[in-house]
């Protein structure tokens, strides 16, 4: 296939040839509901078996979290044996996590959209709400090993294919797949997207560095579930599933995962032009 030819492929053809299985739902709301249901049902299944549940989760998208909170409450799902690992966060100019009063703090935002909304009798202890920490890079890899692995890594694609803040890099796919939890410089592409979707174009306000759970930790998950709903996901889905596996577009590495899947809305798989 010629370079970027996949951008014009019809949606049904993308689903047929993609090396990552794709499920297209009826609309964006259905995508968020499916993600919340996948989270809830896996926890319920593990609870029935007396097993712990370990997820790597994104802050964005967030549309699934109100649905998940409702499911936990109506079904009375105990989260006491659940560990949620948020996959990234922003750093300040001194290399530490941005403060909880900072508009970009994902620790604050996760508490606002998720943890504070769950019935106190059902929510997991605070020590099971995990975030990457630049002062303790080994924590998440060590924790995953101690817990026996990750059940599901939930994710969305960046426009440049990043997962978490695993930005494109000039290394082999094999080397990229082994990158651990670490501090990273945020690409100008990611900073621009963040400025346009989060702070109405205030580029100077976007941090230059972040911390991310590594590709190594994400790819070790038993399953990787990617949820896409934006118009520009059309290009990302095509490059991830139909393009060459390359560290220049990190999401393409999911082609090598034995149990990765994409769930999307129709706008997110329509031809780009």
UniProtKB/TrEMBL annotation:
Keyword tags: Isomerase
GO molecular function: isomerase activity
InterPro entries from the UniProt entry: GlcN6P_deaminase-like, NagB/RpiA_transferase-like
Keyword Heme tagged: no
Gene3D superfamilies recorded: 3.40.50.1360
Keyword Amino-acid biosynthesis on entry: no
UniProt xrefs under PANTHER family: GLUCOSAMINE-6-PHOSPHATE DEAMINASE-LIKE PROTEIN BT_0258-RELATED, GLUCOSAMINE-6-PHOSPHATE ISOMERASE
UniProt-recorded name of the protein: Glucosamine-6-phosphate isomerase
